[in-house]
Amino acid sequence: MEPTNNNGDKGALLRELRIDPGQRERPSPMGGRGWIVAVIVLLCLLVAGAAYYLLFQHRAIEVQSVTAVTPTAADQGATSVLQATGYVTARRQATVSAQITGALTQVLIEEGEQVKAGQILARLEDTAQRAGVAQAQAQLNAAGALRMQYQAQLEQARRDLKRAQDELAVDAVSRQSVEQAQTQVDTLTAQVMAQQRQTELAQAQLDGQRVQLDYTVVRAPFSGVITAKAAQAGEIVSPISAGGGFTRTGVGTIVDMDSLEFEVDVNEAYIHRVAPNQKAEAVLDAYPDWKIPAHVIAIIPTADRSKATVKVRVGIDQHDPRILPDMGVRISFLEEATPANEASALRGVLIPRACIIERDGRPIVFTIENGRAHQHAVQPGVVRGELQQVEGIANGARVVRSPPESLHDDAAVTIAKE
Prior knowledge:
By secondary structure, this protein is of the alpha+beta class. Helix content is about 30%, strand content about 35%.
């Protein structure tokens, strides 16, 4: 029996198990871990999609809300039939100046200062005027003294005449002496009367000089507020223009704030909607949320052909320091509600006009219930200033103000803090 060569058999088996190099498979481009990379990328895409859905599709939209209220009878008092724009004007306004030409020594006003009627606003150089007053006073004193002298001489002449008449009765003097005494009395009487006229003339001259002195003091013609200070101490002012450009014609401008009113231009095609004493509501451009009660004073009976408008004066029912001259204003002319439309006006609720938007050609609003926005079709009605009457939602409903474009039915919302 031949012995078995184990080493030879093992070599033969190894040669049979060896793979032919030509039959080997090409290696994969991603190697042996390619499927792991693909799974990781897929998971990342799924996570990103879920995050986008959670963040943007289910994120609550922040909105502002108001409460719908039922209109009351008091809300039906008046409706706006016309709006017009204009300005605040003062019916009583003056540029105050001196009545004579002179140099200013004092200017006692500043812009925004309240002044009373008769209050001193400025003073002019008054040396010449004071000298004139002193001279006229001296002339008056001299005329008065001379009149008193003539009056004393007249009294003495009358006594002399009386004695001469008594002596003539007993033939103690001649008739000629009596006649001379009478002539003296008549002459002195005429001199006293003439001197009285001179005294009156001197008094008139003194009064004139005092008026000229008073012209050097500039006073407020009425109570009001100083809106402009036009001159300074040392400048020359004159009631007429000097033409050279160095002379001021005014010291300052004063406005009577109680005389403020609104002046608006109304299109002539709608002027028939305005009548005297008609109620109105004013809103200043500077204070858009402040409504000022007003009324029509007058319709100016002329039209502006270039603008096709008619000017309307509107009075202010409640004056306020915030109302200033030349401010812009918008006037709403109101019309009282009538029994015919009062019943329909009481239907529905009142909400701000900003709550109503149009989608798909119809007016809608969004209400808020349990953190969700719900779309409602509504029927708009009468406008009450910034509010509008609508039908289609309940009284007390929370309504979205100024709904954003992204808001849709059943969207999650949060109410912004005011």
